[in-house]
Amino acid sequence: MSNKTVLEARSVVKRFGAVTALGGVSFDLRAGEVHALCGENGAGKSTLIKLLAGVHPHGSYEGQLLVDGRPAEFRSTRDAERAGIAIIHQELALFPDMTVGENLFLGVFPQHYGRIDWDAVYAQSAATLADCGIQLDPAARVGDLGIGQQQLVEIARAVGRKPQVLVLDEPTAALSRHEIDTLLDLVRRLRGRGVACVFISHKLDEVFAIADRITVLRDGCAQGTLAAAATDAGEIIRRMVGRRIEDHFPRRQSTQGRTLLALHGVDVDPPNDGGIALRGIDLEVRAGAVLGIGGLMGAGRTELLMHLMGLWGKRRAGKVELDGQPFAARNPRDALAHGLAIVTEDRKRYGLVLPQGVAFNVSLSSLRSLRRGPFVDRNHEAARTRSIIEDLRIKAQNLEQPVGTLSGGNQQKVVLGKMLLTQPRVLLLDEPTRGIDVGAKLEVYELINRLTAAGQAIVLVSSELGELMGMSDRIVMLCEGRIGGTFDRAEATQERLLAAAMGRLGRAA
Amino acid sequence: MNRFATRELSMLVALVAIWAFFAWQEPVFLSARNLSLLSVELAVTAVLALGMLVVLLPGQIDLSAGSGVGLAGAVAAVLVFWHDVPAPVALLVATLGAVLVWSAMGALIAIERIPAFIMTLGGLLVFRGLHWLVIRNQTVPVVEGGSENIYSLLTTYYLPPAAGYVLAGLAVAAIVASALRARTRRLSHGFEVDDGELTFLKLFVLAQLVFLVVIVTNGYRGMPVALVILGLVAVLVHQLVTNTPFGRYLYAIGGNEEAAAVSGVPVRTTIIGAYALMGGIVALTGFMQTAYSGASTSTVGSLMELDAVAACVIGGTSLRGGRGTVLGVLFGALIMASLLNGMTLMAVSPEAKYIARGAVLALAVWLDLRLGKDR
Prior knowledge:
The structure holds two protein chains of two kinds. Helices cover about 30% and strands about 25% of the residues of chain A.
């Protein structure tokens, strides 16, 4: 490892509106090293690498970037590419109907008098793939490859451009064991040639297998850079969690009744277009209780809720009981009819009909119960919607204001209101406080208290450990589609939850 | 609200301009006889356009409508003229057949996920072929020469003058009553309402329009029954899309299909239902259009699907779904029907007619985008 610093960020600050994503982070990358970035969801890892890649252009942040010791002002991702920085994002950016070779050379095709020189494309593709140790036919159609192989193509494409710096954002999430080995070998080979790599992964095993140095981020601040050889997983987790000011979580526990929702050894296979398989899920929620579900990105939390609603995956084994009765939702309509309701994470995509009004959206799931004859009873509808609006304190000018013009918090309340109007027995909340202001958050927490006091059961999925610990009576941590650990409110600590989410329970706790 | 008014106003100006132009070029355009004919042509275009609205609202389309019009009319005509089936039975059979076929197309679109554009483009070709097959490339009248049946009367029966006035009176009374009820309801819920004077003015103008139509049509042969059919279909579709769960589902699916599904909207059933309804309306339009031509010929219905889509779009319906009203569609259909009627009077060549229709459609959409930008 040389000591030449190829890329450096000096006390960079990046704000999104009132939210500070990076609060003065310094980071340096040397030629021929693998530098891992660790941190919880939302710690600022992605923001930092987007800054390095020119996604957030110069001027949209404070602080300084230096390439080879000279100040760099990237106005776009192209500028960063020209400076030799290649990024492999979590989401693949390949063209499924083109061949591997076409994907590798798209935009930089070798040409001969304006015609693409296809012989050169495929000869050079084969050379690049061989160089990366990837066994793939350059003439194969990318869409016919598995997700893991596609990921390798993406990496080969970046490597083919001979970068000085290679950033890998969660590159192993979709890979099989064997493919992970291929990838780690490739990274070692590149390191041997003096390429500097930034490696982001939630899997600490991989981090320790490959990284020379590790920088931990927490809440947008660097928590120190450590030599991998001189530290261990426990230390890294402690730094990721740290001690922070506890938010105010007004959870009032209520008396718990009978079990309303129970899963016993549930296995779910993902649909053909991918996603994580759920294996051996056991959990139960009683009337009046909140079950928190945590886990890292891609652990299968949203998939689990979507499966319960009949929206995702195929159940292979195990059983689900709703109020003691075996239950398998065919579709959300079926689930709603059985008293199961969901507030989805992506409210604009799955929650709201944006051009329509508040009343239209709130009553959408309950129209059949609002009928008089064949018609929707407008008076009844208005009365019910009005009581929901007052109950949840939705700030709208009138019942017909398009929900697209409401604030995030009020939009979220509209989705909540729509589900409450169906009078569910079990309410599934997927990141109910994401992207809404503090006041609205507190109102959501108060609502959770009121609903449980009234005997409803709530499943709360959250990425914020504080929220999980503050609002749940019991917490299940998912890890790669399995249960990583189950905790009572009293025994949950941030360290233990995070260790469970990383599949290291018992080792780091 | 303001933008919306701008848009409606500009459409009204366009309509007045079109009428003024034709009246100037061919004074006979404003004769009672021609306006009566225009009202029948409007009825045929508008009924199909209202069906198209129901399909466009959930973000689908029906390109097979025009061919379907020809086929349904042909099936009924063949049953009546060649097989001596009583006209009511023939109409019923053809209607049921259309509803079944359109439901099947809807099922293929909603369940098998064949894009509506492709599915109905296939339907366009298949139905055109079947249409020609059914009439064996001949001209099939809808009734024996010199006599009448319910089929031929669809576009040739006119209400006696007195009946026209009674009907107009009833219609105005119904409109006023429902407007007042809606107003009271909105007030009781604290919604915005126009002030009383404006409401009165609107209703007054509307009532005058209704009676004007009766007076003008009575000036020829009386209120055409086709116009009454249009009125019934319009009220039905309006009630359906605004006041039933099915109608709400149409708007919800067009506005955000994924959110609609998560909210428990029966997306597939609703889309199939929309196509089933379209099948019924296609059959009805087929009977009216064929009756208007006097016989089923190989050109009946040709390109009517495009006039229907054009009427919807001119009337403010979004092709991506989720937006559109019955009133707007009626307005758009009136613009399209006026253009065609006026150009025919002026003996404009068919080539120029196509060009003018296309230009008006593009212009209307462009205007809609410009005027609707800030909405």
